[in-house]
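Hi,

Apologies if this is the wrong queue. I'm a grad student, and the batch job for Penicillin V acylase from Streptomyces azureus produced an output file that my downstream script rejects. I'm not sure whether the problem is my script or the file. Here is the sequence I used:
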Amino acid sequence: MYRRAHAAHSYAQVSLPPMMLEGTMRSRLRRLVLGATALFTAASALPAAAAPSQGRAEQHPSRDGLSAVIRYTEYGIPHILAKSYADLGFGTGWAQASDEVCTLADGFVTLRGERSRYFGAGAAAGGALSGARTNLASDLYFRGVRETRTVEKLLAEPAPVGPSREVRDMMRGWAAGYNAWLKQKKITDPACADASWVRPVTELDVAARGLAIASISGEGRFVDTITAAQPPTGAGTASGTPSSRPAARTPDAKAVAKAADELWGDPGMGSNAVAFRGDTTANGSGLLLGNPHYPWQGGRRFWQSQQTIPGELNVSGGSLLGTPAISIGFNSHVAWSHTVSTGIPANFHQLTLDPADPMTYLVDGEPERMKKRTVTVAVKDGAPVTRTQWWTRYGPVVTSLNSQVPLPWTGTTAYALHDPNAANLRFADTSLGFGKARSTEDVLASLDRHQGIPWVNTIAADRAGHSLYTQSQVLPRITDELAQRCSTALGRTTYPASGIAILDGSRGDCALGTDPDAVTPGIFGPARMPTLQDAPYVENSNGTAWMTNADRPITGYERVFGTVKTELGLRTRGGIEDVAAMADRGRLTVRDLQRQQFANRVPAGDLTAADVTRACAALPGGTATGSDGKAVDVSEACGVLTAWDRTMDTGSRGALLFDRFWRKLEQAVPPAELWKVPFSAADPVRTPNTLNTDAPGFAVALANAVAELRAAGIALDAPLGAHQFVVRGGERLPMPGGSGRLGVWNVLEPQWNAAAGGYTEVPFGSSHLQAVGWDGSRCPVARTLLTYSQSSNPESPHHADQTRLFSGEKWVTSRFCEKDILSSPKLEVVRVHERR
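Support response: The file is valid. Your script probably expects a header line. Output copied below for reference.
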């Protein structure tokens, strides 16, 4: 394990060049004093040529209240200029509402526990802020959080446990900006125009959204079972004696481990990122390519902006909707991105119950009564619904991992979920620290001080040529020693297999404990985080920290962080192959990062296509039998796959056939039988290999894929883009990229709809792309792309403009410095303020 030395870190403010404003908008530039008053006086005097177009009416500056200047450039990207953190939050809230008011408002309905009131109790909850399947479950959970004043208590904590004054100001300002937009503008998005559920918000709502995002991989995944868990039948009644209550049933350990692995290994969130050290680049500065994979619809979208407080902060990048700080981005000195980690952000405690009362559990023989949380939810066209939740010192009682794998609450045993991120409001401060950073060391300093990253790794590069990978995240402090000493019989299977700890909750000596450098008890401190600095490259594609760099494996971390010397996913293998070759080649530039993003190479194809075509050609009579027992002529497929270029470019012929075949092959052939050469920890990037075409499922999968495409009227050699597309405003846009299961870097996980022509929508995939480096100037060299565009509103001109760029594998040249912002041919200046 690579550990860093810990010293006292201090934040340095970003030194900015003199700000410039354009006097005649393409002829004469005037120097603008950095002081906030002079800045805003000058901004208010911009000439008519810089005035907003008819899409955004100009707002006149106010003598009091919060205000900001928003400069829009191409693709509706706002550059928000403010004189304080509260004003910056105001401008950010305003601009986010302008693009995403319906999505944001829907999220605030969730956080207030009012989805059932407006949309019906049984309707799907959407999944943006939790894994709740129904509105009722979502409401019962989030209303419970609100009624117990969880967020208020965290806001009252002094920093760094609670948010800093700067972040509090940004949250307060964000709420004010959102509210001002609602008051001063008319909603044109048909998703919520004239809807009664679009209401003003408060700082508390903004903080609650941040907490929901932090805990979405912990408590957020278990909302259904948290709100449904009830004591065994007969508890608390005359029939509820120990002899009449259900006997303890031990869950199947292997089923629990498998379910937990699937739960935290699902494709709902992902990403790639790579940082290169200066000696691999053309000019000695670092390079960073960030490629997060996130939902294309709903409240987990990214949103682009630049945030500037002259002399204090100047950062550009993507924010998660409803949050005031830049989540991933860059400034004049450093760039960073995140990838969803393999760390398990929650654990379970198995409770020993009082034989006389299943709502009381024992710790060191002493009884503790569960806390009863009774919540009432208003329901549309129906009577209010009241339900009870049960909470312990560890967290809520849960009764399942999923619908197939119960964790039974019996007369003797129950299970409690522990999620340290359910008390984590530190993400925004950590991100704000990144925005102020001047180096990768400063990025580490922010991580060390705030310890607020909930479920992701951090990859960074800086102007001086440093690279950084760290799995610095909030995890329950489950050491291997603690798991060895305190795991229950069930936990002794689940922890080694999946990293899920199930600890004996009846023993006080099984408490999680405290690291001396941890900001709060029960989590790991910075010294234990898997970290690698200044390697020629650091890369992560949601694999474990172990293979961040194939030549410098990281080891020595606790199992809860992830595994060591275990098989890698195809996307990790392909990513390491690509970036290691790039580092070896050297002389890298931002253009090389752009090429890597859209290479669309299919590692699964490189590994297997030759074997597939040989086995295909050897099938007797050129036929194979499908799962329905029918013979299928697959001879044409052999030639198509032989000619395939092994990419997922929109023009690639054979890509769709291979994609459909590979998905069916994984279903038909068990993982242990898929390869002839097994995995070897001595050669992790190149093993396993050699497809086992002798497996009975091979020919079945090929037959099924061919039959499926023919039944849909799709030619086996059809170009991918003809059948992998999205429709925006009636325009059909072909989509490049492919599934992570194929190992493709540029991930798309599209929806298959054969009747509609193939893959016809993308719920999830590449999102806020950034390729960042530095040259000799003060301005970073950055290319960005928000794949699904800036606005969900179909009436917006920025609903699909960047999606068209993504279709054509094109990028946006970032306008970071003042001279670039002010020279934009699409420049609009909007001055926004509170109206008192």
